[in-house]
Design goal:
single chain; about 300 residues; alpha+beta; seven-stranded mixed sheet; 10 helices; 11 strands; about 35% helix
Length: about 300
């Protein structure tokens, strides 16, 4: 293989109760990236479209950092040239840097002859997350690489559990056209939490995992509650409480902040309820003098995938 074009999905991280430990991949929103073998060694990023302000310097770009680390670990007699088309905005709360990092890990691995496992690809992609947002978090990149729902059971050592996805699960998300930087969103988090809040939170994580395994939509709904992170962050997102309440009134199983925001996600059962939630969320944000877009998606169970290769 000398060339590959891939799709790297957007992702929703935290999923209410699972801060830094849960996430899932989106089916119809993401980046397209190409990787081409070159006779000159090293990594070169030749083009980035769809977003402004992203560097072509591979030592500073999330995708470039991943590719360089992989070539250092697995030396070869060729170089790699990359292009990226961003399908959604950085700072959206939908894992923009994770799509770049996870996509790079997958694409480079294919050109190398697939020497690395998905767990190793996630570890490489975490280096890209660290370069982009200062913290080597795994929830977004693991969701992009593995697809579906994932649970980061442990960071030391890294242990990722891929969870089942009930067939009728749908995502509705609204992206207000403002930027919330991950670094800023982490700075507002409490350094300590009460035992009561901790017990509530980890019980909800257990309930969500159980609900996904048993196709129990009511249990999923009951578990999509965040008593620690959401209360500290929601003031960063205009009209968050209104959007969440309208989504739930329209039938959503639950709603919350996607990643560090400003995107707000709602999880629904079935297409009809998703359509109602889509309308309700759109109406809630109309006439607020903030541009926004709303989309509906199935859960992407495949993760990063090949579009074409030769």
């Amino acid at each position: 293989m000398n060339f590959i074009k891939i799709f790297a999905p957007a992702t929703v991280a935290n999923v209410s109760c699972g801060f830094d430990s849960m996430g899932f991949a989106v089916e119809n929103v993401g980046d397209e990236m190409t990787f081409t073998k070159t006779t000159a060694k090293g990594v070169k990023i030749t083009e980035i479209t769809g977003a402004n302000g992203l560097t072509l310097d591979p030592t500073q770009n999330a995708a470039g950092v991943v590719a360089l680390a992989m070539l250092e670990k697995h030396p070869v007699d060729f170089g790699i040239e990359m292009t990226m088309h961003k399908g959604f905005s950085p700072g959206s709360g939908l894992g923009s840097s994770a799509a770049s990092a996870g996509g790079a890990a997958y694409g480079v691995n294919q050109l190398l002859g697939t020497p690395f496992s998905n767990l190793e690809l996630t570890q490489f992609a975490m280096l890209g997350e660290e370069a982009a947002c200062g913290t080597p978090i795994a929830d977004n990149v693991a969701s992009a690489v593995f697809g579906g729902f994932v649970l980061i059971r442990s960071y030391e050592p890294l242990d990722i559990v891929k969870l089942p996805v009930p067939d009728e699960l749908r995502l509705v998300a609204i992206h207000p056209q403002i930027e919330v930087k991950t670094k800023d969103a982490r700075e507002v988090l409490p350094s300590q939490v009460s035992l009561e809040s901790a017990v509530t939170q980890w019980a909800n994580v257990g309930g969500l995992v159980s609900g996904l395994h048993s196709n129990d939509y009511q249990l999923i709904s009951n578990s999509l509650t965040d008593v620690i992170v959401e209360p500290a962050r929601k003031h960063l997102i205009p009209h968050f409480d209104l959007v969440k309440s309208e989504a739930i009134k329209a039938g959503a199983l639950g709603a919350g902040i996607s990643g560090s925001g400003p995107t707000i996600f709602a999880i629904c059962q079935g297409d009809e309820i998703a359509k109602k939630v889509h309308r309700a969320i759109k109406n809630a944000y109309s006439n607020k003098n903030i541009d926004f877009n709303v989309f509906t998606s199935k859960i992407n169970t495949e993760g990063v995938k090949t579009i074409t290769s030769k």
